[in-house]
Write a structure and sequence with these properties.
single chain, 93 residues, mainly beta
Length: 93
């Protein structure tokens, strides 16, 4: 799983029927301190996230496809599976 911030939307006028109703968002991976880490990526949204939200992204095929479409086997590499309300780090970590 990856912690990320939603930074944009992708508009697709044509897409496979399997993804009908799904939104593709641009996310920026971040560290626990909120600083950017690595390159932006695309993720299928399954939780109605919006720009500026901190989210949890699953980055493996089976988990990503199942979480975002409800069925395994979809060609999805990354899916947003949660909107983060807060990050709390235990003392001494």
């Amino acid at each position: 799983m990856v912690l990320a911030r939603v930074v944009g939307n992708v508009v697709a006028t044509q897409k496979n029927d399997r993804y009908e109703g799904g939104r593709i968002l641009v996310v920026q991976p971040i560290g626990l301190d909120g600083a950017d880490e690595g390159a932006e990526l695309l993720a299928l949204d399954s939780v109605d996230a919006g720009i500026g939200d901190t989210v949890v992204v699953v980055r493996e095929g089976w988990s990503a496809s199942t979480a975002s479409t409800g069925e395994p086997g979809a060609a999805i590499d990354s899916a947003i599976v949660g909107v983060v309300d807060s990050v709390e780090i235990a003392p001494g970590y």
